[in-house]
Amino acid sequence: MNIARDASAPGLLSPELIDMIDRGVSVIVSSRDAALRPSLMRAVGSRINAQGTEITVYLARSQSRQLLQDLAACGRIAVVFSSPSTHRSVQVKGTGINGRAATALDLPLLQRYLQAMEFEICSIGYRLEFVRAMLAFELEDLVAISFTPSEAFDQTPGPKAGSQLVKEAQA
Questions:
Q1: N or C end of the chain: smaller count of CB under 10 Å?
Q2: 15-156: CATH superfamily
Q3: Alpha helix (H) ranges present in the chain?
């Protein structure tokens, strides 16, 4: 699904990166506790708004207890979006975290995400059953975590890996 964008609106993420995230790629969500010990979990879906100013990731509560505790305690999130077929990756850090229970209204988005990941993962040789098992969920167990991106980093393997993406200047 391509989302309409206001090309004149500058943002942290380029239209190309917003498209990549919107298309449905691998999503790993992380945070940390007070002692700086990391916690992380694979998301089973994601959404980004047209301007790239709000991202939502979907996590299974039963598998993400420590991560959800850390998000609530420190208020910081880091999410890596990576295309399995190309290894193109971006890490987005953010604040302003809000959580809510996923509902039936989220199902079309979650189904679209699953289909995109089936294509991505199967295109590199894995079986459909593997992808479906990896991204299986019970709707009642899902939480939608939304946040505002504040920093972004190129994480694609190569000479630019780790470099910070600079917010586009206002015209």
A1: C
A2: Electron Transport, Fmn-binding Protein; Chain A (2.30.110.10)
A3: 15-23, 65-74, 107-122, 128-134
Give the three-state DSSP class for 113.
helix
> What distance lies between CA 22 and its chain's CA centroid?
9
Asked if 11 contacts 53 with a C-beta cutoff of 8 angstroms, the reply is: yes
Summarised one tens digit per residue, pLDDT across range 98-132 is: 999 999 999 999 999 999 999 999 999 999 999 99
Report domain extents, the chain. 15-156
Taking only the tens place, the pLDDT of each residue in 58-68 is 999 999 999 99
Instruction: Judge whether 58 and 45 are in contact, CB under 8 Å.
Output: yes
| C-beta separation of 132 from 114 below 8 A | yes
The pTM score is: 0.90
